[in-house]
């Protein structure tokens, strides 16, 4: 096996050491759960009758305890294009289970909201905390203790992290994530981006903008840009939680169905009563978490995962932070440029070699752990460094070969840039993330007077009024988890990009989130501590000179903040169900820990 890069080895060792107590407590928990797993033949007949009453043709197999029973947790809904294909999955999964003497039951459903629908709207303030709701819904689904394994049906932004957090609390069970794949490519990304900017400048009509967007998002399947949803799929591959190569196979194809069948067969073969027991809690260890972080960096993935990775790592007793992510970034080269960091989308990425190419390059270069357990037919990452295909009706894995498009995908020996492009910036304004892989290097440093806002709508209004036509650091505060649920500030990208294109030096500083498709404007995001409660951003005033520098890792102001009084905390808004999430806002921890109320109160 290739020797690990010294930085990967050092960070892994540090994560193992600082996670020593919490990881042991987690492993002890799932061992107790495994030891206490009820023998269904000894469970009350009334309980069993309730569980089996709706099982129809599987009722006899369940009654006689014929084989493993697989719990399916689904995030299906019709509104979310990526999840629309899941509507017909349950019946198919049940058929695949019967092929290997198992049964499958839908254990429960979870919420699945689309950030693309709620961008810039009040519903986005529920988005981050929907992850906690999804995790809890997963817990409710699995609490019936009738299952020997799990199939998790989810793809998009908060849904995969939420499913993983919930499933990890039942980590004595084996689990496989089952994606449904991306929609076919639509109009070119450059054409879509051009229309968005023209609309921001008032040079395109709303109808022209809608027609452009429909040309891009047009059918069932995951959106094809490399945002949070597709970064989720990348991470599941590098953690070994997919059937190898499952991430980017389109819905409705024979290969997609073969991969779905394999997922059911594999989870049935990995149960506690078999010879290849692979509990989820053992698969998701420190090395798997490091692999997720490495993959995020190597592919220029979504900045949202700087919040999600610490959260789901905690659920497995693993402690990671932005220092770990930034240090890994110094050693992990950028191997992929996928829109918005390149011209091609995830379909083009897959055609060029995709995840098989990325995994092979990282493992062979000692940049990722090749000995994570995984759920493939063989333990470890070997199959994940190949690509799936069909030989007749049989599912096979083949060598992926060289990159099919070196404008999109390069090897570790000749990367797009030598580092992973996710940098920690810190100083007297706190700690924040800067996605340098999305920003031209000449824009890595911006030092200018700031203009302070409390909503993204106020930023857009100031832009339209010409008030930002200068070198400026736009500060948008009171957007953190405790303030309003930390919405993505997607509406900021077009106007700030226009200012930058006009020749001004522009940067964004915020305690809110930006999308995995946030674009080319330098941004210090997820600022921790957040402004609410007196964080440093609450002390800034218009005109204070702020410096953001990815080169030196600086986020600071030259203003003397010591004698200032924090700006008044805004009152929480109601409507669109936001008042129902008041408890989550009050109890949430900081973004660097995952921005979770549930994990904070659970003491994880």
Describe the model.
With 604 residues, the chain is of the alpha/beta class. The protein folds into four domains: 6-36 and 67-184 and 219-399, no CATH class; 37-66, no CATH class; 185-217, no CATH class; 423-570, Glucose Oxidase, domain 1 (3-Layer(bba) Sandwich), CATH 3.50.30. 36% of the residues lie in helices and 13% in strands. It is built from 23 helices and 14 strands. The protein has helices spanning 6-18, 20-35, 45-52, 59-63, 89-99, 115-118, 127-142, 159-168, 189-200, 206-216, 228-238, 254-269, 280-283, 286-298, 305-315, 322-329, 346-351, 354-364, 456-464, 481-484, 493-501, 582-587, 597-602; strands at 69-74, 103-109, 149-153, 175-177, 386-391, 394-399, 423-427, 430-434, 445-453, 472-476, 506-510, 523-528, 545-549, 554-557. It has an eight-stranded mixed β-sheet with strand order 7-8-12-11-10-9-13-14. A four-stranded parallel β-sheet has the order 2-1-3-4, sandwiched between helices. Strand 9 (445-453), helix 19 (456-464) and strand 10 (472-476) form a beta-alpha-beta unit. Helix 1 packs across helix 2 (20-35) and helix 8 runs parallel beside helix 15 (305-315). The chain is globular, with a radius of gyration of 24 Å. The mean pLDDT is 93.
């Amino acid at each position: 096996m290739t020797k690990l890069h010294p930085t990967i080895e050092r960070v892994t060792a540090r994560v193992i050491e600082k996670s020593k107590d919490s990881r042991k407590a987690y492993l002890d928990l799932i061992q107790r759960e495994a030891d206490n797993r009820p023998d269904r033949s000894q469970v009350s007949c009334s309980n069993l009758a309730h569980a089996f009453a709706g099982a129809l043709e599987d009722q006899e197999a369940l009654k006689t305890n014929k084989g493993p029973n697989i719990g399916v947790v689904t995030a299906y809904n019709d509104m979310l294009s990526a999840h629309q294909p899941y509507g017909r999955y349950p019946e198919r999964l049940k058929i695949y289970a019967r092929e290997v003497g198992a049964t499958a039951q839908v254990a429960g459903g979870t919420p699945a909201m689309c950030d693309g629908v709620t961008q810039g709207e009040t519903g986005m303030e529920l988005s981050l905390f929907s992850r906690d709701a999804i995790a809890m819904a997963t817990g409710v689904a699995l609490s019936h203790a009738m299952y020997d394994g799990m199939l998790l049906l989810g793809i998009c932004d908060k849904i995969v992290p939420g499913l993983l957090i919930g499933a990890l609390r039942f980590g004595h069970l084996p689990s496989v994530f089952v994606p449904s794949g991306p929609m076919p490519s639509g109009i070119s990304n450059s054409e879509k981006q051009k229309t968005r900017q023209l609309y921001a400048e008032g040079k395109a009509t709303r109808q022209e903008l809608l027609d452009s967007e429909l040309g891009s998002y047009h059918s069932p399947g995951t959106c094809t840009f490399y945002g949070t949803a597709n970064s989720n799929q990348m991470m599941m591959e590098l953690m070994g939680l997919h059937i190898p190569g499952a991430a980017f196979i389109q819905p409705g194809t024979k290969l997609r169905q073969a991969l779905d069948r394999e997922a059911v067969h594999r989870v049935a073969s990995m149960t506690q009563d078999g010879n290849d027991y692979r509990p989820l809690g053992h698969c998701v260890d420190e090395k798997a978490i490091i692999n997720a972080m490495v993959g995020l960096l190597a592919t220029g993935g979504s900045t949202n995962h700087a919040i999600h990775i610490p959260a789901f790592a905690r659920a497995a007793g693993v402690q990671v932070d932005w220092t770990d992510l930034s240090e890994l970034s110094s050693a992990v080269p950028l191997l992929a440029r996928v829109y918005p960091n390149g011209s091609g989308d995830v379909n083009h990425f897959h055609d060029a070699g995709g995840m098989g190419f990325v995994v092979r390059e990282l493992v062979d270069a000692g940049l990722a752990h090749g000995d994570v357990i995984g759920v493939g037919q063989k333990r470890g990452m070997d199959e994940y460094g190949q690509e799936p295909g069909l030989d007749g009706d049989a599912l096979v894995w083949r060598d992926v070969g060289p990159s099919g498009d070196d404008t999109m995908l390069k090897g570790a020996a000749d990367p797009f840039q030598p580092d992973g492009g996710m940098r920690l910036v810190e100083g007297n304004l706190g700690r924040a993330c800067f996605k340098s892989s999305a920003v031209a290097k000449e824009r890595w440093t911006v030092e200018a007077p700031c203009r302070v806002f409390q909503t993204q709508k106020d930023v857009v209004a100031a832009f339209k009024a010409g008030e930002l036509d200068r070198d400026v650091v736009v500060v948008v505060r009171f957007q953190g988890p405790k303030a309003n649920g930390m919405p993505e500030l997607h509406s900021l990208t077009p106007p700030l990009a226009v200012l930058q294109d006009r020749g001004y030096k522009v940067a964004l500083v915020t305690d809110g989130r930006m999308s995995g498709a946030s674009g080319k404007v330098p941004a210090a995001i997820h600022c921790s501590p957040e402004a609410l409660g007196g964080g440093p951003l609450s002390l800034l005033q218009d005109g204070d000179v702020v410096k953001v520098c990815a080169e030196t890792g600086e986020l600071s102001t030259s203003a003397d903040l010591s004698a200032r009084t924090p700006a008044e905390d805004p009152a929480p808004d109601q409507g669109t169900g936001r008042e129902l999430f008041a408890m989550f806002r009050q109890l949430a921890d900081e973004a660097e820990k995952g921005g979770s109320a549930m994990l904070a109160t659970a003491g994880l």
